[in-house]
Input
Amino acid sequence: MAIAAIGAAGAAAVLLNGGGGAPKPDTAAQPGASNPAELAGLDGVSAGPSPAGGSAGASASARGSSGPAVPTASNSARSAAVVPSMPSGLTATPRNAGTIRLTWTDNSGNESGFTVLNGAASRNAGANATSFDWDGLAPGTYMCFKVRAYNPSGVSAYTPTAQESWACATTAAV
Output
């Protein structure tokens, strides 16, 4: 059970996982993920059996400085985490003797950024990026690339998708 509790100031949030013990893998990266028993005694939070009589869990209510308690959140109220969509149309074009420009179409609205891979190393581009300059190359360097989107929920597939397919270019020779 995921629970968000808002303190009297209305700004702090606490996320819990329901079965006690270590955080579940899907909540491990959530800030404040914790064992409900560790939070017992905080204003509006108690550890114990779930309201439906299930295993140990936690319950919480959020209260402002005045007014009635706000109902607690549940997993069904929490929006599902969504991995970003795969970018498409990757092309590689030499810009000069030391740089290859990569361009692609951003097909996702929820990425944190993009990982550009050359088979041996990777570099990151920011959210909503549609190009990246891979620089620091020697003149006449032939290099191939793939790109994928990422966010806290996971990563998309690489594009081009086939393992043997890459977007390739050669930097200008001097």
